[in-house]
Amino acid sequence: METLIKNILQHVRLSPEEIVIFKNFWTEKTLEKGEFLLRNGETCRYDSYIVSGVLKAFCINSENGNEEILFLAIDDWWATDISSFSKQKASIYNIQAVEKTNLLQIGHQSFQKMLQEIPSLERYFRIILESYLGTLEKRIVFNNMYKAEQKYYDFLDTYPDIVSRVPQYLIASYLGISAEFISRIRKKNKSS
């Protein structure tokens, strides 16, 4: 809980009383490696903050059966189907633990009540959403304009903690390139 509160306090002020109120809205959940947080077709009932661990969000490509990675999330990040959670409609993707993952979760109705009781959190969650939107926009631009090698190097620079914790094939899927291509880049760098 302290990690989440520290994250929030970087963006907004909360009084000691608000922190006590805030803590009452959250529950802890642990996912074992391979366990699902959300499956395609289910409604996302919880907003989830990762205390520790790694999650992947993905769809299954209907043509080839491969996982298409939408996002990877690690400690001190959020992992939620925002559209499903906010509209309480069925999700179009899956979220699964890549390793044992500890979460803090808040249900949809509790989330709404929390925002009413602690209005400054509206600003915090707006900041988080703006950051997420910026990341999505950058990804779209990179996917449309950059070559595979450039996308890979940018990913290395931007997310070094993910690179050290996530299998290469998941990074390749996220970038829309092959795992073999990443292997060739790594070999080339080792021989340089």
From TrEMBL:
Domain of life of the native organism: Bacteria
InterPro entries (UniProt xref): cNMP-bd_dom (IPR000595), cNMP-bd_dom_sf (IPR018490), RmlC-like_jellyroll (IPR014710)
Coiled coil: none
Domain spans labelled Cyclic nucleotide-binding: 29-117
Protein name stated in the entry: Crp/Fnr family transcriptional regulator
Natural source organism: Chryseobacterium antibioticum
Organism lineage string: Bacteria, Pseudomonadati, Bacteroidota, Flavobacteriia, Flavobacteriales
